[in-house]
Amino acid sequence: MNPFPQFEELKANETFRFRCRSCGVCCRNVKMTVMVESLDLFRIARHYNLEMTEAAERFTEAATVGWGAPILLMKATPEGNCIFHKSSRCEIQAVKPRTCRLYPLSMGPDDEDAKNFIILKTSERQFHYTGKEHIAGEWVASNMSGEDYAYITTEYRLLRELGRILKRIPREKEADVLKQMLLCRFFMLETSESFMPQYVRNMARLKLTLEQMTKES
Question: Which of 120, 138, 170, 186 is geometrically suited to a Cys-Cys bond with 106, CB 3.0 to 4.6 A?
Answer without folding.
Answer: 120
